[in-house]
Amino acid sequence: MGLLSAPAAVDKREYWGFCLYDWANSGYVTTVATVLFAPYLTSVAETAACGRVGTVKDPCHTNLQVLGLGISPGSLAFYVVTVATLASALFLPIVGAIADRSPRKKVLMCAFAWSGALAACCMVFVSGGRWELGALLLFLGNLCLGSSMVVYDSILVDIAGPDDRDDVSSRGWAFGYLGGFVLLAINLGVVTAHDALGLSQGTAVRLSLLSAGLWWGLFTFVPFVRLKNRPPASVVPVRGGGLVRQSFGQLFATLRHLKTYPMTLLFLVAYLFFNDGIQTVISVSSTYGEKQLGFETQVLIMTILLVQFIAFFGALAFGRFARRYGTKRTIMSGLVIWMVIVVAGFLLPARQIVPFLAMGAAIGIVLGGTQALSRSAFSQLIPKGREAEYFSLYQAGERGTSWLGTLVFGLVHQLTGSYRPAIVALGLFFLVGLILLSRVDMRRGIAEAGNAQPTLI
């Protein structure tokens, strides 16, 4: 079996459709959510608040006024992500319940993807002091990303059996990092050579945001063509009403009976904590590098390119480790490395590129692996017919929709005026997640959900 080829028991056509949706949406995740948009939106907000862009030596201390509240321009992007995730807590479970009852899962997934891609394309119009437009588009983009991922994650159960899910999930993440690397490399060239291209740096950044939306939208046609729609399986019977009303009924039934799956619930809570830490590190890394450590945009993009390149191999390596040592043990080892990373981030000296690159390399090793294996492990704990609904709860803490981590990061920055204590505070999320995950009995949880036991977990 080749490094990226489909496992023997998995349909090759659907395997490529599944993996290439990760390739598609990673253009948004890397270029927009991870590297460019948070610092760019911060600069736009600082221009609106102070009439200039803040620097390390001369930061902008004037707050924006939002509904009578003073909001630091440096915390705006993180608060927007927080609000988007709070909205997701209400919206995504309904998306999941509808998806479980719909015979057109892939159509639903692609509709959300194309809506998010449109929001990303419109970011090209965010300039001057129009921070309100930028905040709205970031909110919509993250909400649509989370909604499409609810359906996407549930499709893993449809196309791969229990023994193949670690491989398929890990390779999907690997394709995502490869796609993000390719687009980000192109955008690095545009931003770096903006003078030679006759563009201002701001225009180069906005064109890069546009490219991420186009990338996401165009490559989504691959899963649209290759994935199959399937009739709902083992759907919880709910009397009366149409699809939406029945979906609400299914959701309420699941929430009432969730206590009958204690290991599933415990894994979900553990994941909420440690993934909040992962997603916050991802989303704040470029802002931390620019505003706290004083690096230029080109350095940040080069560092993220390094992360993406190493993460491609890291995701594949974690899949192999899981086959040898077990999924749970491999995830827990990754969380220990994450705790070391955030402590190292607190100690990083300003304007010293080698330590910054070393931290990026460490992030790349564990980034994709912990997330990919968490997805496949959780899929083993879901009762049949409720995959999308359970993954909607799972997605509340997924990439780009973290809320508690970004809230803590924004609050600590606003209280201290520094990003250093904010970054080290994220270590608590990994510690709590590790403790909770250590208490999850995977074999018991799989049996409670009525699923087949994999050979190794």
TrEMBL record:
Protein name: MFS transporter
UniProt subcellular location: Cell membrane
Domain of life the protein comes from: Bacteria
Location, primary (coarse class): membrane
Coiled-coil features, chain-numbered ranges: none
Annotated InterPro entries: Atg22-like, ATG22/LtaA_families, MFS_dom, MFS_trans_sf
Species, as recorded: Kribbella sancticallisti
Classification via SUPFAM superfamilies: MFS general substrate transporter
Membrane-crossing residue ranges in chain numbering: 76-95, 107-127, 133-152, 173-193, 205-225, 265-288, 300-319, 331-350, 418-437
Membrane topology listed for this record: Multi-pass membrane protein
Pfam families (UniProt xref): ATG22
Chain ranges of the Major facilitator superfamily (MFS) profile domain: 263-457
Alphabetically ordered keywords of this record: Membrane, Transmembrane, Transmembrane helix, Transport
